[in-house]
Amino acid sequence: MTTAQQAENKNQQTRTVAELVDYIQVLTTEIQELYCLDEIPWVVGYSGGKDSTATLQLIWNAIAALPPEKRTKTIYVITTDTLVENPIVAAWVRSSLKQMKSEAEAQGLPFAPHLLQPDFKETFWVGLIGKGYPAPRGKFRWCTERLKINPSNRFIRDVIRASGEAIVVLGTRKAESTKRANRMKKLEAQRVRDRLSPNMNLPNSLVYSPIEDWENDEVWIYLMQWENPWGYSNKDLFTMYRGASADNECPLVVDTSTPSCGSSRFGCWVCTLVSQDKSLAAMIQNDEEKEWMQPLLDFRKELDAEETRDKRDFRRRNGGVQLYERNLDEGISIEPIPGPFIKEAREDWLRKLLTVEKEIRQTAPENMRDITLITLEEMSEIRRIWLEERHEFDDSLPRIYQEVTGEEFQDPRPGADYSLLGRDEWIVLEEICEGDAMHLELMAKLLDTERQYRKKTRRVGIYETLEKCFNTSSRSPEDAIKNARLKRELSEAVSQGDVAKVKQMTLGDVAAINEVDEGKNESDEEVTWASMKFKKENSE
To answer: Phosphoadenosine phosphosulphate reductase domain: from which residue to which, for each copy (predicted)?
Structure first.
């Protein structure tokens, strides 16, 4: 009988402690055989939670039991710090990795811990404050791939590039959810090697999940009864989970009526994909020493609050207006999909975040006083986006930073502080535009586009860029939305084959254009920046 068949049989009924002990020995032998079978490197995913800790502990103990001459293959242990992790968990994981590295060297084991982070251009705050993305929602879950998936996939791809293949070891379990169980069973059917499932996201890699059939309580029994091999405290881990449970209990389940603390799940403190951050709230509720994190919980509630549309642009990031059908009490309304946060809202989020960081640095325990909620590199990228992509040349980020922190912003990006346009020019432009936001935006874009192209030796593309400024910023919100609705109606008429309506709408557009351009000669061509360029070239 194969190990997989044994696991399936064991999973049909709850294992006793004695049976779990026997099965752990079976798994130990399996891990050793898989490890020694080939030269394919292993990459173990470690989050510091109970499942990944149990998985790594199994691997560690199995490899430590091998003779030194057989421990020839590197086992990479990777942890992804999203930079918005629960501070307590983040500190726990960083300390664990340091201890792990020290013990691996002392015990002569081939474990190589790595702390990964998202690219600074893909962090949560660069997305929300820099680009103006709204807080993640189920239909716009922009965070997971950028913060979690991409950093680990980049590392695994590097391993595959160097070795040709990789085996990814994960602490996934079927008991986590029905969805997870169904997915794992589908991948099992595609296995080309016993216990190794294909990795659908990364070619040339296989997934090994040694505790895939374990229940929550079996994980805790193992962690409590088997000593942590790299010298970390599983009892402290148990306490951390207990503190993150609403009832401050994390019992070992002895019957079906006993709750388990396995439902407490740590994650990003800014996460708005769940209704509330139960683990962070429970930590604060259960431990007076963790009350310093209350500002994080309050900030997260603000992120999750129902958004007012005056904080969001009526256009998407590309400047276009996209409509959708909104269900209201009085019926269906065709409205523009809210776009990114406007300038004032993005500045307000930055100011609030820096204020929270300043507050918790003053109230946190001594060992957490250096906590960083947003890095200088992230703020530098946010500043670049505001200046170069949004054309907001008033350069408000250094001013906001100094107002909140009392310190001068030291931008690590070379040449970041050099600019022909600044706050003074922006104030003058605001006075000229007399409160017309679209006029201010258009003039700022035109001026800053000229500034950006001024530095280039060849100004190829400037006319097209200027044309885009007019296309996205010259209409009032009312006119832009009206134009989008006309396009939508025309598209629907075309799709329905309504020739009469298409002709009517097309002739209506022509009439409107003629009315606007009254007095223009029939021979006159439409004037665009591109056509002006071509005329200039022809005249030469």
So the answer is: 43-225
